[in-house]
Design brief:
By secondary structure, the chain is mostly helical. It is 61% helix and 6% strand. The protein is built from 10 helices and 4 strands. The chain has helices at residues 18-34, 45-49, 53-57, 63-66, 74-95, 97-120, 134-147, 163-179, 188-205, 210-217, and strands spanning 39-40, 43-44, 152-155, 159-162. The strands form 2 sheets. It has a two-stranded antiparallel ribbon. A two-stranded antiparallel ribbon has the order 3-4. β3 (152-155) and β4 (159-162) form a beta hairpin.
């Protein structure tokens, strides 16, 4: 058995219901940004907190974290928070609060970094604001598929499907939309990046090979 290193040293298990607090913070940020009445230096709070490549170039690096708490509409907020509550609560109870939060923020932040670099390297002066918890939620979905490979979800709310297959469908859709430039206001590259970092996280920190898990269970 391999000895634990710094990268995979286990946290002491604690449970603090952080998922619910994440949902509450998202709701509060939405209320604060929805009206655009709160601003600093003439710039609405929405743009201070969303991920805007040009602003990150100016040193607004906090956006790589805060973008995960900003949403553009009630429906955007509702569906993201529903998924966060469902998958997040299950994973937090299984992993413990500290591991859950580390996974959530590592994947969400690194997805934001990839998105920023992609547009910054193209010379984006400002760029379209990117917001939402969906990238980190895709990472949670992936982790659920690894930890509970035989569990089923209703894909698109009506197709029963084992979680690993659902992840594969989502990945295929995101790749297709990104390659053919079908944006529809969705940051497909960010979603794919969060899933990629979720994969790396599982391989490095948990020493688990998702493909082997799926081969053994599907």
């Amino acid at each position: 058995m391999m000895k634990d290193s710094f990268l995979n040293k286990k946290f002491k298990y604690t449970y603090s219901n952080a998922t619910l607090y994440l949902v509450m913070i998202n709701v509060l940020v939405f209320i604060a940004t929805a009206s655009n009445r709160i601003s600093f230096r003439g710039i609405p709070l929405f743009y201070w907190l969303s991920l805007v490549p040009g602003f990150v170039n100016m040193g607004w690096v906090w956006q790589l974290v805060t973008y995960m708490f900003v949403h553009g509409s009630v429906s955007h907020l509702f569906f993201n928070m529903l998924a966060l509550f469902m998958f997040g609560r299950l994973l937090e109870r299984t992993l413990g609060t500290r591991e859950f939060l580390l996974f959530y923020f590592v994947c969400g932040i690194m997805g934001g970094v990839v998105h920023y670099l992609y547009y910054a390297l193209q010379g984006a002066v400002i760029g379209v604001p990117v917001m939402g918890a969906s990238g980190a939620i895709y990472a949670l979905l992936f982790l659920c598929a690894v930890m509970f490979p035989n569990a089923q979800i209703l894909l698109f709310f009506f197709i029963p499907m084992k979680m690993p297959y659902a992840v594969m469908v989502f990945v295929a859709i995101e790749i297709f939309f990104h390659i053919f430039g079908i944006a529809n206001g969705v940051a497909h590259l960010l979603h794919l990046s969060c899933i990629l970092f979720a994969w790396i996280y599982v391989m490095v920190r948990f020493r688990v090979n998702p493909i082997k898990v799926w081969k053994d269970n599907l």
